[in-house]
Amino acid sequence: MATASVGFKSREDRRKQNELEEARKAGLAPPEVDKDGKVINPHTPQFLSKVPWYTKSNSENPSLEHQKNWKTETVSTKTYYQRCAKIDQAEKYCKGACQSCGAMTHDVKTCMDRPRKVGAKYTDKNIAPDEKIESIILDYDGKRDRWNGYDPSNYRFVMDLFDAKEAARKKYLKEQHLKKLEEKNNNDATSDREEEDDDLRVDEVKLDKDFAKVTKRVRTTDGGSTGTVRNLRIREDTAKYLVNLDVNSAYYDPKSRSMREDPLPDADPNDNFCLGDNQYRKSGQTLEFKQLNTYSCEAFEKGQDMHMQAAPSQAELVYKRVKVAKENQKSQRKDAIMAKYGNAAATKDDIPMELLLGQSERQVEYDRAGRRLIKRVH
């Protein structure tokens, strides 16, 4: 195949050309440069570096421009045709249109509508509108994009259906959970009564032996380690839920074995041994623990690095220091007030008669600015 750069060369010129190429490949001579100033690899074959005769370039110098992509136009990947887009609709059948539906954009063989018993060519009624036909040039990725032209708003129906199913499932699970809790509470109440009756029949020797013993269950059906409470009551004493058998008396929770109110509120406090669990929650060290917990929460909200559950010893130490500081501040304030105004309770002098009776014959008048004006003695 002839090229544009091929011309008649003598044997001497060809020998020099071959020697130059060998020197370039060996690195003894500088490599060849194209018209843009880019270096051409000397190891590139001639059938790649030589410009063909059928190209528009008439340059005799070797170049690699003809190896580049000459299609420089950018093709959009996201463009797509409009689905089910319609344009004009004829009122009568036109020649060359589809004989079934009457549209001008396709024929009978490519018609996608349901075949009519009598085509629009003969009835001249219900002419279908013409489809919008677009010619779109897509690149390699655009042709193979399976989601090209998809409308995301169509997925809203799927999301609504999924949300409705999820709401129905949660409602059903909640109802089943509530039923199981009710059955469990009823079963626990029955089993607790049976256990209490069985414990009352235990031998007295075993009661005396195991009275001070508190066991700890590690793996229980309740899930966690719990301490047995049933052995903490003397069996000769009456159970608190048997003190008052009235239906409207204090409520007793069999699961937690707690009676928060007093079963006999009208009885003598000296003879009443059960005052309700709320009394124990509001007395003793319970109040101190509540105050400590409240202080730790308030301090954490104000930005102090303090947490009751994470570091209880630190929280207690900080709370003690704060209490001592408050007491010192309170005593200092009290001493300052007493030093300034005096302590009437500590003075042993007799109280003057004017102050004791709260009246005197001395009259003093002041103006609006607080200045004394008149002094009169009656």
UniProtKB/TrEMBL annotation:
Amino acid composition bias (Basic and acidic residues), ranges on this chain: 9-25
Ranges where the Pre-mRNA-splicing factor SLU7 domain occurs: 138-371
Keywords: mRNA processing, mRNA splicing, Nucleus, Spliceosome
Signal peptide: none
Pfam family, one: Slu7
Localisation per UniProt entry: Nucleus
Region (Disordered): 1-45
Coiled-coil features, chain-numbered ranges: none
InterPro entries, A to Z: Slu7_dom (IPR021715), Splicing_factor_SLU7 (IPR039974)
Record family assignment: Belongs to the SLU7 family.
Function according to Swiss-Prot or TrEMBL: Involved in pre-mRNA splicing.
Quaternary organization: Associated with the spliceosome.
Name of this protein: Pre-mRNA-splicing factor SLU7
